[in-house]
Structures are given as C-alpha cells and as structure tokens.
Design a protein that fits this description.
The chain has 205 residues and is α+β, with helices and mostly antiparallel strands. The protein has two domains: 18-84, no CATH class; 100-188. 40% of the residues lie in helices and 12% in strands. The chain has four helices and three strands; from the N terminus they run H-H-H-E-E-E-H. Strands 1-2-3 form a three-stranded antiparallel beta sheet, covered by helices on one side. A hairpin with a 2-residue loop joins strand 2 and strand 3. Helix 1 packs antiparallel against helix 2.
Length: 205
C-alpha cells in the first residue's frame, strides 16, 4: 500500500450499503487476508487521532465475521485515504471569536437492510471541528422531513451541551482571574511579601 494512489475520501461517494455493490467482487474473502486485524488497527487510529474515518470504518466493522472481497477493497481505500492525508491536521488559530456553529443533515432510508435513516452533525469553534457524529436513527422515518427532524433534535441536544461546557470553562477562567487579583491586592496591602528564591533553596520542591 506504500506506493498506492491516494484516495480523496475514506468511502466511495453514494455507497449506501456496501453489500450490494459490485456483484463481481461479492465473493467471500480468503481466510489468510488480515481483514479483522486491519479493522482493529483502523479502530485504534480513529479513536486516537483520525475521527474522519469513523463512519467508513464502523460500516466495515459490521462484516468482520464474513467479509467479502468488496469489503477488503473498501478497507484498502481507507488506507489509501490515510496515506494521502498524513500531513494534514486541524489548526486552531488565534481568535477571540468562540462562536459555535453547527451543521446537521440526514439521508432518508439509506440503510437497505433496515431502511433506517442516518443522522449526522458537526460543530465548529474558531473555524475548526470540535465535535461530530454520524449514526443510524433508532426508528424508521416515514418521510424525509421526519428524518431531518430527528437529526435536528440530536444536533440541538449536542449544541446545548457544548454551550454549557463553554459556559463552565468561562466561569473557571473568571475564578482564576479573581484569585490572581486577590493575590495582587494582598501584595499591595503589604500583607504578603513576594520574593524570588533560587530553586535549590525552595523547600516546597
């Protein structure tokens, strides 16, 4: 895979259910192909660093018991995508604007086995993604607007949680600033004298 051409995305566009694509490749995979090991390595990678491959890997993880050739082709596509994006990263710039912006959407009956829709959302702070999720809905939506309504509800819950988290962090910064100002006032009132002390003479160390 070291010399393979990089893939632009971890998953083929429009691939609703990989079981029904490319019937000429839908044969059982040879037992000596390390499909399960590859999925395990990809799982570890997505948990630790590469969240962008989560959806594709989780879809393929469903077929660890009886993988087909097409599933192995999809695994190699993820590896080609990783190879082509190794130097890419998320960079948080210096910005005072911590406004949270969220995007949410859903398909409609995308799973061919259960006909359940998939909800997805991503939230951005300072122009960078901080939270994302994509998963099947728990019920079958009869209409496309129903699927989008369910997806919007999940995203709204996440938005409220993020808002509360940022509020708690801001309150923590306020508490720290108050403590610093208190220390400064104590020094000004000469109740405490602050002096430099060499490291070798600091008993607290």
């Amino acid at each position: 895979m070291g010399n393979a051409n990089p893939a632009p995305t971890p998953r083929e566009s429009g691939l609703n259910n990989i079981r029904w694509r490319h019937p000429d490749l839908s044969y059982e995979l040879a037992s000596n192909v390390p499909y399960r090991q590859a999925i395990g390595c990809l799982m570890f990678l997505l948990i630790c660093k590469r969240h962008d491959i989560a959806f594709a890997v989780c879809c393929l993880a469903q077929f660890c018991e009886q993988p087909l050739n097409i599933h192995w082709v999809a695994v190699k596509r993820i590896l080609r995508y990783i190879a082509g994006t190794r130097i890419q990263s998320i960079m948080f710039g210096l910005s005072q604007d911590l406004k949270t912006i969220g995007y949410t959407d859903s398909d409609w009956g995308g799973c061919r086995e259960t006909r359940k829709s998939t909800s997805g959302y991503v939230f951005m702070i300072a122009g960078c993604p901080v939270c994302r999720r994509s998963r099947n809905q728990s019920v079958v939506a009869a209409f496309s607007c129903e699927a989008k309504y369910i997806a919007s509800c999940s995203a709204e819950k996440e938005a409220v949680w993020i808002s509360r988290l940022i509020g708690d962090m801001s309150q923590g910064n306020k508490d720290v600033k108050l403590q610093y100002h208190y220390l400064g006032n104590v020094v000004e009132l000469r109740k405490v004298e602050v002096a430099h002390c060499p490291t070798e003479d600091i008993t607290a160390d």
